[in-house]
Design goal:
Strand order of the largest sheet: 36-37-39-38-40-41-42-43
CATH class of one domain: Alpha Beta
Number of helices: 13
CATH architecture of one domain: 3-Layer(aba) Sandwich
């Protein structure tokens, strides 16, 4: 590996000497293509996975300068050592599979450690092995099928309410099932069938997803009034298995489509009694989910997500009377971010409920009593709870991640904390200036804390939960070899947003040949979906969307503008019914401030590219923001939110469908486009309907606008693959630099 790296380095050094001042030339293109390989495997001692054992030992794989090393950590002794003799195991593996295996490149999977027998069970190549550390013996246990042949599941498949199997009672004396659209039970001893419901029809039938109460005396079954059947279609022009094209289709609900209506029903089995549950509290359904019985069979609960996502309820149904009690009624004037922020945990079979809410403007933890009354707000302040990790009922603690805790740190950095059920004794488990990833031991007494920043490789520490103190530094990342290859750390940059007071955060990526005396066009990589934040916070040597582009002679940036998530609620609400906003007002100010500080950033030459929601954003840059952006490449974009998947678009654009959908549409407003646009489309994209891009293209043609359309045969949802990357690079070089791109045949030669 080192020999190869030295050769690549020499080649690039030679290239740099040929042309120091070129931008978008053959020299720059060769560097852009080579930089991924050049930077790969140049950062050491940054392990990525930690495996805790039952006895509070742990093992992990370290990417040392000499190759992979498997290490075992003894927490009690605060020591680490090689898990096994790498040389001995490599020799045994070589003998078993008749292939040369080197000690520094043993790539084993699914490793299990039996401390009693002191042996390892693991997968290697296509075999399952057992290796005894005492006897140094290796045994083949089984062969393994190739995992690559597994079919890819499709996210949008309709939930089949009729596909569930008959459901036996907890004591296995009876079986519940659906026949003729109604609920029946069968006595398993006599085979006698008894009909429990009589109101099911083909148009409003009972689902086969039936739930018995734990005591076996009651059944929850629900009726379903089916919704709309909506499919998208596309032609796979060049299938591998045949000459002729294939017509494909997918289930695909879009905003405004009719949804199924589910109405839970209660049945008292021995009395053959059907208690109908009133639907007043959940009659405008987007979804009903998590239908669960209480362990003592006193009630069942479910969650109700109202269509339009401005109300979300936790509902309890009394198992004796069918009476409904709304335990939690979360409401919002804009939207509830149910897909990213909602969390619920029922303590002691529902005596209390842990809940997350943004009701005070920040995402925080709340504790409810079992009857639905609010007990208290557990966390509070101008910071956000990001995710609940663990609820410890025994010790009455909640472990969670948070961001924005420190005024002197990036507000997006993840930190780990815990707090008591009483809302007291909040404890920080991480505090170092970086983005943290923690792996707890099985009893939560210790944890691995690994943190990094875009300009600092990971530091990996073993800590104790009791006082959050470091007891052993496991690894400290080493990127000295990367720096030798000319790598320049991304710069974290902030400026004030449109309100003049909120900090907007982003990063600046410069090429290895950076010269402050040059003038650099700017390219923004954008993804402005409201469901998350997107600017990298962890250390990476290479960013596919930015690093290679920068090597052509650009300054590449990424920014989290208003409308994205993980800050305060009002920050995200900018996107509400207004996805065309895309945080562009903040992005323009950010780049203008950066260019003021760094005059080599040419604010008069700005490009942008993105994929999926980022593709919509890139198109919107020229439709709604051509006063600032000059060139855009939009890949697999959702250019009209009425054409994309329901769950994502209705969450942020709302329901019912109104004029604001058309106002945000790149298609409806295509005549406003100015600048140079390239559209990239995967022919068989089943994430964003390909028709969305084609309708944008059609509108542009009708508006007499020039643009380029690149369709990739056989490709699904992506940025366009290698060919799309080539076209993207060429488009930016041509229109931002005014340079004719070199032949790719010459680039690869």
């Amino acid at each position: 590996m080192k020999q190869i790296m030295k050769k690549v380095s020499l080649v690039l050094t030679f290239i740099c000497c040929i042309s120091v001042y070129g931008q978008g030339t053959l020299t720059e293109y060769k560097k852009a293509v080579a930089v991924d390989s050049l930077f790969r495997d140049t950062v050491f001692n940054t392990p990525s996975e930690f495996n805790w054992l039952p006895n509070n030992e742990l093992w992990y794989i370290n990417n040392s300068e000499n190759g992979k090393e498997y290490l075992l950590v003894n927490v009690a002794e605060q020591q680490q050592k090689p898990f096994f003799d790498h040389t001995k195991l490599a020799k045994l593996l070589s003998e078993k599979i008749e292939e040369k295996i080197t000690p520094n490149n043993i790539n084993i999977r699914d490793l299990e450690f039996n401390s009693d027998e002191n042996d390892l069970k693991f997968s290697f190549k296509n075999f399952l092995f057992r290796y005894n550390l005492n006897t140094n013996s290796l045994k083949v246990l089984d062969t393994i099928n190739d995992r690559k042949n597994r079919d890819r599941a499709y996210w949008g498949d309709f939930f089949n309410e009729s596909s569930g199997k008959p459901v036996p009672s907890p004591d296995n004396t009876k079986t519940a099932f659906i026949k003729n659209s109604n609920l029946y039970i069968k006595d398993n001893k006599t085979d006698i069938e008894t009909q429990l419901s009589y109101d099911g029809t083909k148009g409003n039938f009972y689902s086969s997803y039936i739930k018995w109460s734990p005591d076996g005396k009651k059944i929850m079954a629900y009726k379903v009034r089916p919704g709309e059947d909506h499919k998208i279609y596309f032609v796979e022009s060049s299938p591998k298995e045949q000459l002729q094209p294939i017509l494909q289709s997918r289930d695909y609900l879009k905003p405004g489509d009719e949804l199924p209506f589910r109405s839970p029903q209660l049945f008292i089995v021995d009395a053959k009694q059907h208690i109908q549950i009133p639907t007043d509290e959940f009659n405008s359904q987007y979804d009903i989910s998590k239908i669960e019985w209480r362990a003592d069979s006193r009630a069942f609960t479910f969650e109700y997500n109202q269509r339009g996502h401005q109300a979300f309820k936790v509902i309890e149904v009394n198992a004796e009377t069918g009476k409904i009690n709304v335990l939690i009624n979360e409401t919002s004037n804009t939207f509830i971010d149910y897909s990213s922020k909602k969390y619920r945990y029922d303590i002691e079979d529902g005596k209390q409920i842990v809940w997350t809410s943004e009701r005070d403007g920040w995402n925080h933890l709340y504790l409810y009593n079992g009857d639905g009354t609010l007990n208290k707000q557990l966390t509070k302040g101008n910071w956000v709870v990001r995710k609940v990790i663990h609820v410890d009922e025994k010790n009455k603690d909640i472990y969670f991640t948070a961001s924005g805790l420190d005024k002197n740190q990036d507000p997006y950095f993840l930190h780990y904390c815990k707090i008591g059920f009483d809302g007291k004794n909040m404890k920080r488990l991480t505090s170092e200036n970086g983005n943290h990833q923690v792996t707890f031991s099985k009893d939560y007494s210790h944890y691995i804390d690994q943190y990094s920043r875009v300009d600092m490789p990971a530091v990996t520490l073993l800590k104790t939960t009791e006082n959050a103190k470091t007891i052993l530094e496991l690894q400290k990342g080493d990127h000295s070899e990367l720096i030798k290859q000319g790598w320049i750390a991304p710069e974290v940059f902030t400026s004030k947003g449109r309100d003049g007071k909120t900090d907007i955060w982003g990063i600046i990526v410069r090429p290895t040949t950076f010269d402050p005396n040059r003038s650099y066009p700017i390219i923004e990589y954008i993804y402005a979906g409201p469901h998350d934040s997107f600017v990298p916070k962890d250390f990476h040597a290479y960013y596919w969307s930015m690093t290679s582009l920068a090597e052509l002679g650009f300054i590449v940036v990424q920014i989290d503008g208003m409308g994205t998530s993980n800050r305060f609620k009002a920050f995200q609400d900018v996107s509400w019914k207004n996805l065309k906003d895309g945080g562009f007002a903040d992005r323009k100010l950010w780049m203008t401030a950066a260019a003021k500080k760094y005059p080599y950033m040419n604010i008069d030459k700005v490009g942008i590219h993105g994929t999926s929601a980022g593709g919509q954003n890139a198109g919107a840059a020229l439709v709604f923001n051509s006063d600032f952006y000059d060139v855009a490449v939009a890949s697999c974009g959702c250019h009209d939110n009425r054409m994309d998947k329901m769950w994502w678009n209705e969450q942020f654009m709302g329901y019912p469908i109104g004029p604001h959908y058309a106002a945000c549409s790149n298609v409806e407003n295509a005549a406003q486009l100015e600048g140079h646009l390239m559209l990239i489309l995967g022919e068989v994209d089943d994430n964003v309907d390909p028709a969305s891009t084609m309708q944008f293209a059609n509108a542009l043609i009708k508006a007499n606008k020039d643009f380029e359309l690149v369709t990739i045969p056989g490709m699904s949802h992506s940025a366009g693959g290698d060919f799309g990357e080539r076209k993207r690079k060429d488009f930016f070089v041509k229109h931002l630099m005014g340079v004719t791109p070199p032949s790719w045949k010459k680039i690869y030669n």
